[in-house]
Amino acid sequence: MxxxxxxxxxxxxxxxxxxxxxxxxxxxxxxxxxxxxxGEYRESLVLDRNVTVVxxxxxxxxxxxxxxxxxxxxxxxxxVLRDLTIASAAPSDAAILLRGGTPAxxxxxxxxxxxxxxxxxxxxxxxxAINGADGAAVRLTGTSRTVLEDCAVRSAGGDGVTADxxxxxxxxxxxxxxxGGRGAHLTGAARGRFTRCEVRGTGAAAVHAEGRSALVLRDxxxxxxxxxxxxxxxxxGRRAPADDGGERPRDGAAAEEPExxxxxxxxxxxxxxxxxxxxxVLAEDEAAAVLDxxxxxxxxxxxxxxSGTGALELDAVRVVDVADxxxxxxxxxxxxxxxxxxxxxxxxGLYAAGEADLALSDHEIHDTAFTAVHLAGxxxxxxxxxxxxxxxxxxxxxxxxAELAAEETRVQDVGMTxxxxxxxxxxxxxxxxxxxxxxxxxRTTHRPLVADCEIGDVAEIGxxxxxxxxxxxxxxxxxxxxxxGVFLDTGSVVRIDDCTMTGVEGTGLYAGDGARPRVRxxxxxxxxxxxxxxxxxxxxxxxxxxxxxxxxxxxxxxAEAAPVLRRCHVSGxxxxxxxxxxxxxxxxxxxxxxxxxxxxxxxxxxxxxxxxVTAVRGPARGSGSAAAAEDETDKAPEERLAELRAELxxxxxxxxxxRDIVGLTKLMQMVKVRQEAGLxxxxxxxxxxxxxxxxxxxxxxxxxxxxxxxxxxxLERGHLVEADRGDLVGEYVGHTAPKTQAVxxxxxxxxxxxxxxxxxxxxxxxNDFGQEAISTLVKLMEDHRDxxxxxxxGYPEEMRxxxxxxxxxxxxxxxxxxxxxxxxxxxxxxxxxxxxxxxYACPEGTVESLHRFFEDLPRGEQFGNGRTARQVFQLMTExxxxxxxxxxxxxxxxxxTTLLPEDLPPTQAV
Length: 910
Prior knowledge:
Elements lengths: L7 E4 L9 H7 L4 E5 L2 E4 L2 E3 L3 E5 L6 E4 L6 E3 L4 E4 L2 E3 L6 E5 L5 E3 L2 E3 L2 E4 L4 E5 L2 E6 L3 E3 L4 E5 L2 E6 L3 E3 L4 E5 L2 E3 L6 E3 L4 E5 L2 E5 L4 E3 L4 E5 L2 E5 L4 E3 L33 E4 L2 E5 L4 E3 L4 E5 L2 E5 L4 E3 L4 E5 L2 E5 L4 E3 L4 E5 L2 E5 L4 E3 L4 E5 L2 E5 L4 E3 L4 E5 L2 E5 L4 E12 L2 E5 L2 E13 L2 E3 L3 E6 L5 E3 L2 E5 L4 E3 L4 E5 L2 E5 L4 E3 L4 E5 L2 E5 L4 E3 L6 E3 L2 E3 L6 E3 L6 E3 L2 E3 L6 E3 L6 E3 L2 E3 L5 E3 L6 E3 L2 E3 L43 H14 L4 H22 L11 E5 L5 H14 L8 E4 L1 H4 L7 H12 L3 E4 L15 H14 ...
Parallel strand pairs: 1-2, 2-5, 3-6, 4-7, 5-8, 6-9, 7-10, 8-11, 9-12, 10-13, 11-14, 12-15, 13-16, 14-17, 15-18, 16-19, 17-20, 18-21, 19-22, 20-23, 21-24, 22-25, 23-26, 24-27, 25-28, 26-29, 27-30, 28-31, 29-32, 30-33, 31-34, 32-35, 33-36, 34-37, 35-38, 36-39, 37-40, 38-41, 39-42, 40-43, ...
Helix pairs in contact: 2-4, 6-7, 10-11, 10-12
């Protein structure tokens, strides 16, 4: 049986053909092919039956321009348009309007207007170029179904593809680019599936799903956006209770529902999102989504930002190289993260606030500029088998009402505390913290749990419990700490069971004034100081504890302390137990062996009564406060003041600053004498402004000033804590005050030195978070006026602007010390001082050349005063090494140490 070929109508100039496409269509039989001769046809086609319209000579040869309204309108039938160029009458009009039937476009170019699919049309658009003008390039509404395959979509004035109502769209191998608005926008109850697509160069989000829409992206790339890569709003991704059961078009000509078995109907698989002006992914309102095996990187906002009450699941997602936090979660959002990575962030790795609920498992967070995991507000986070490392701040910080549950998680290589609980609560099981300043710092009224954890290689304290705080510490191993193993601050109540400490460079366990720990089964091996130190009025119960080879008395009990020591044993060392006058310990069944000056019965015999134990004072005493008391010097104040004065005198130049510091020291001495005599001190502010250019010795003088005040007994420690804008100013609302408070707390008892303080008030940014840092600082200075000295430093003109930025600053900083630039002779002295320290000689000719060098050296913005002089010395030693490298065996020994004029670098090298 022969198949009937479709009839054919031809459109061309001359005899035997139709002059218009419309005429040919009207004359065509059902299913006919209309072949169009090259040329431009100004008409508006209305098609409602089966017909094919094709360019006779291929793409680019036939142009249909609308005379009015759309150039092509399809109301029904199987309409095929092939290789045509179709243009609208006006940029605001649709070039093609598909209202019904199953229209198909192949190899067409649509320009100057949009493709609109509406009603119940089931459209297929393949290998087409769609260049919109005003509004969306492709607009899908109603219950339409549309397939875009291997297309290029552009819209200079609006969105690329937009779907509304209950429209369905499936895009495969399609490029959406250079859209003035969003690349793809789904709203209402629309559904979309995008496979192997690229969305780039958009003015707003690359893809935005809102309303009740659903979305699947697979193997897609979203990049170079003017806002987010993916934005989810409203209830997008929340699966409806039941599908609508709508008819699917033939040949896959509609988007399938997302096949995720999970509860969300937005799914991204193997997608890449990068170079976004905003967050890589933003999920707001009640939106929900699943991201699987995706890569988010090089974003100018957060990598992934979740707000509202939405939900997000991240599986094997990498977020790296972002200019903000890697993952930020606020509001009441729920986030589940598995097998992923957050790295190289310019802020936090993970930031959570509000009532956020997070669970992370087998996840890695590293190389963050701020705290790796920051929990604030009422956020809750569960970390299981996670790895946190390489941050200059905290590994994990828990603030306000936040809660942390961590299991088998490792925190290492952090610049501050491994896990810092500052309010809120925490439970840590089987975790490891290493290579941090402090292992755990628990400052909360709750009772955090620390069980079966390991803490090691920390610079200061293993575990610190803040004033009045509590904790339960079970089965913890503490190894190699630079200071105290466990430090219990004033009034703390802690339970410690079956813990061990080895390699502690300070005291094993320090219980502060009024602390009441209950300690069972504690083992302290070879502490450099005391095994257990009980400060004034401390109490508590110590049972079955073992202390060996303590560098100081194994157990030291200060006056008024009243602990119960039961079945404790000391081995090795000089002293087993020291009890000071006024202490009232209860000692039951304790003993020692191998102790050179033992008080307890040897071999574990009956213990002496508390009154029979010898009281020892002086050098045998252990620690009196966290790290400061362990570093106490035994030098007399007069001797220490003389040393500091000599060190000040050795500084090059700075004659006016030296006079000011000496004058302030004498004034402080007079203040102290008046106070000791019962006289009121004169009005005086110890806070200072250091005004001067870089490299003029401001930090060194600040350290010496703290030393003077400590030697006079006016500061408890006199240590120096340096800070800048990055240490004080946070990235979110509510983040700045805790950061400023944390830095300030570290400086209590010493000097807080804020370099380039004017950076807290950037020019023209009145709403900058730096103002919050200043306000917080002013209040803290008032609350702790006798406990800390604050020095702000920077360029003279900028410092005047800084002081004028807040009314409270001027009254607290009443004295300015001016650090003048070094002249050439002083710079030469600095070079010669460094040469002497490193055993180099500078002959007279070299000194003269140095002086000429510094006279000729430009003193622009890059000039660093003393820092420049030290750099010159370093360059001279390098050039010296190159000069004599070939004659090391034959040369005179003096050649190894003599710097000559030719070793000076060219001025442009400095």
